[in-house]
Amino acid sequence: MTGIASGVGAAASARRRAASRAAALAYRYGLLGVLAVMLVLFSLLRPAFATYPNALVVLQSVAVVGIVALGVTVSMTTGGFDLSAGACVGTVVMVTALTMVRFNLTGGTAIVAGLLTGLVVAGVNVLLTVVAKVPDLVATLGTLFLFQGLALIVTGGQSVAPGMTVDGAPAPGRFTEGFVWLGSGTIVSVPVPVVVFALLAAAVYVLLNHTRWGRALYAIGGNAEAARLAGIRVARYRALAYAVSGVCAAVAGILLTARLGRGDVGAGDPYLLQSVAAALIGFAVLGANRPNALGTVVGALFIGVAINGLTMLNAPYYAQTFVQGALLVGALVTSYTLRRIR
């Protein structure tokens, strides 16, 4: 009887070890495996999916979302959460369009105005979260509504486009060719937004993984009080995180304006949820379980590949939102549930 019990116990232990190894593999490589399966499946069902032009389409479609998501990722490293990113994109779109169309200024001036707008949004977030000690989610939610409303007030709730009527006369300005090139031009056949996305992704990766600032940001996100006792200036680094998020959202807004060729009211609204989804999906990449630039890039590509493939399969547009939700839920399960099993 003792031998039988011992054998049963050994078998149960072996099954537990096997389950643990399987969970560990799924935890580290599950998301990449699903991405690979999607690529193969879409390529088999629609051969045009696996072409260089379509790859550029996917990359261009996720460039703006990915840039916003990189900023959100940096804000999350300190334990924060920038819900105002989408509103920042929309405000920058309106500001840059107004600068050229309404005030007849140059594209360079519009870019500077857009970047300053992103820093203003970041400054409001810093005042609320760092100075006034308002919780990040509540503070950035308030900033979201504040700048959404401000953009509507400044433009009277109307889109900004060349030839629009201002005080009974046509607007004097237009989008310059150099500015439009930012949204529709190419560098060695690669769209400019994709190049900008790649450069910013590399910069954020280096910042978070190979600098003392990145180590300090992660330390604050792990335990702000312990980081303070270790000599890290918590307030300064939290301000830095929101400044990076604001600049990333501003760059995304500038590229979006250049691509649209107009300032549409609410142009930035869809980018909040998509960027947050990309950043959270990134938690599951290679078992990182924390905000990271590489995971965010993969998360953005994950969403882009899924939407592009479904579009080529003529799936209804309303199914795409469901798929994004399913991907996010799956990534969260991978990050949290499988980690505990492992």
Can you characterise this structure?
With 342 residues, this protein is mostly helical. It is 77% helix and 2% strand. A hairpin with a 2-residue loop joins strand 1 (165-166) and strand 2 (169-170). The longest helix has 44 residues, at 2-45. The radius of gyration is 23 Å and the shape is globular. The two termini are 32 Å apart. 44% of the residues are buried. The mean pLDDT is 88. InterPro entries: ABC_transp_permease. Its main location: membrane. Keywords: Cell inner membrane, Cell membrane, Membrane, Transmembrane, Transmembrane helix, Transport.
What's the layout of helices and strands?
Blueprint: H1 2-45, H2 52-77, H3 85-102, H4 107-131, H5 136-155, E1 165-166, E2 169-170, H6 177-184, E3 186-187, E4 190-191, H7 192-210, H8 212-222, H9 224-229, H10 234-260, H11 269-281, H12 293-312, H13 317-341
Antiparallel strand pairs: 1-2, 3-4
Helix pairs in contact: 1-12, 1-13, 2-7, 2-10, 2-11, 2-12, 3-4, 3-5, 3-10, 3-11, 4-5, 4-10, 6-10, 7-8, 8-10, 11-12, 11-13, 12-13
InterPro entries: ABC_transp_permease
Keywords: Cell inner membrane, Cell membrane, Membrane, Transmembrane, Transmembrane helix, Transport
Membrane topology: Multi-pass membrane protein
